[in-house]
Amino acid sequence: MEKRPLILITNDDGIGSKGIIHLARIAATLGDVVVVAPDAAQSGKSSAITANTPLYVNAHSPIADNIRMFSTSGTPVDCVKLAMFAVLDRRPDLLLSGINHGSNAGVNNIYSGTMGAAMEGCTIGIPSIGYSLLSHASDADFSPLTPFIADITARVLSEGLPEGICLNVNFPDGCTPLGMKVVRAARSHWTEEYATYATPHGDSFYWLTGKLHNDEPDNPETDEYWLKRQYGTIVPIRPDQSATDALGAVSSIVSKSQS
Amino acid sequence: MEKRPLILITNDDGIGSKGIIHLARIAATLGDVVVVAPDAAQSGKSSAITANTPLYVNAHSPIADNIRMFSTSGTPVDCVKLAMFAVLDRRPDLLLSGINHGSNAGVNNIYSGTMGAAMEGCTIGIPSIGYSLLSHASDADFSPLTPFIADITARVLSEGLPEGICLNVNFPDGCTPLGMKVVRAARSHWTEEYATYATPHGDSFYWLTGKLHNDEPDNPETDEYWLKRQYGTIVPIRPDQSATDALGAVSSIVSKSQS
Questions:
Q1: Whole-angstrom distance, CA of residue A75 vs CA of residue A44
Q2: How confident is the model over B87-114, as pLDDT tens digits?
Q3: Which of B79, B95, B222 is nearest to B161 (CA)?
Q4: Are B9 and B20 in contact (CB under 8 A)?
Q5: I want to staple A8 with a disulfide (CB 3.0 to 4.6 A). Which of A15, A92, A187, B183 is the partner?
Q6: CA atoms lying within 13 Å on the CB side of residue B247
Q7: Which of B91, B110, B187, B192 to mutate to test the interface with A (most CBs of A within 10 A)?
């Protein structure tokens, strides 16, 4: 008898978040699920790895017959590495990350722990998808997303993804998406980035804040454009950032340095 | 009178490392230097940002008339953001990150705090370069790199870089590079990733280790190939990981999800 697909799930909001439980329950309709997630929030951790402190893995009670649960003391990428090394007894057919509480559209992909985990899966050849909802609320309503996530997940489980590519999927908040658009990330950057405080001794300290500035708000080729119009977005992501199309331009700039 | 160029320098090994001081002294021959670096080692921090704890900036004594020194309690990307927000009084003409004690070739770009900082500079439109030496030794010999770094830095300061592109520059250890090659990162991944220990209570814990597996060791289009042959390598890096060439393939996989 053929084995059911094995689906590894992680996130960056931690194992106690509502989004990962929602995702695990959707995935459990398609295969056997193992959740290996951070024991606490790890937002903004990008592809960070823990090189200089030891890491722990703790087993939790399963939340269903086919949803096993583990937490680790590491980052989202550590969770993927530890799952492969110390938790799973066979290679997963799919890696899902999320559902993140908050947007990973635009430039956010590079800071996202959700996408760090998806890119790690991609790097070792596992079809990988990060899912995010544009709401930071801990009690966000993920239910309108269910049929979309079930459909995308089933298709990738069945068809795979192009080599070296994973998916960054974002959903608008507070509505049923009008549909899904396959687009690229909007060129964007963060501005006005810190709140400033003074210690009781008069020294300054800083807390990250800021606004996402979209450099191309009217461009329908981008994720931010469609998210504002109540569509979900699917951005193909290539973890390898080598810009092969810029080799010539860079060569001419540094030419005297070349042999 | 025209102002001298302003060069912002950071790293992921911390403000006390030998590599950043070496880089600051090279850069000081080309402009005025401000170092804003982590107060302790932040290796493997990728593009991680600190969202949920406050951050501090401390002024250190300058190490030369035109090399001002600051440390922060944050990650390499936090250092760039805090430099722009709280330290610099004008926009830098160039951002340099490193010299990293250790390789950032191949897949390492996505885990690298050195490159996280360079990509942050790129994202806000500052020509940015990460420099790394293939030695983790705290007393590594950076002197053979000096003319190469001076030349590449001067050229980028003068010519700029293509929009959306920064550079990941790696040098072989223990020799004067035979030259520089402009190439892409080798497709590679880490294997055998943890040392396993037992606590006094018999529970397991894990420490990151592992080996870089190069998937294409004989390919002269890649950085790993040339680094093994005593050349330095320059990889153009695009922080935006949107894979626009995969939009069609992904659309056909998820087609029924699209409106």
A1: 10
A2: 999 999 999 999 999 999 999 999 999 9
A3: B95
A4: yes
A5: A92
A6: 14
A7: B110
